[in-house]
Amino acid sequence: MDYQKTLTTARLTLRPPRPGDEDDLLAIHADPEVMRYFSETPWSDPERPARQIAQDAAAFAAREYFRFAIVLNETGRQIGNCTLRSLHWQNRRAEVGYALRRDYWGGGYMSEALRALLAFAFGELDLHRLEADIDPRNTGSTQCLERLGFQREGLLRERWIVGGEVHDSVLYGLLRREWAALTRSQ
Ligand SMILES: CC(C)(COP(=O)(O)OP(=O)(O)OC[C@H]1O[C@@H](n2cnc3c(N)ncnc32)[C@H](O)[C@@H]1OP(=O)(O)O)[C@@H](O)C(=O)NCCC(=O)NCCS
Question: What residues does the N-acetyltransferase domain cover (predicted)?
Answer without folding.
Answer: 12-177
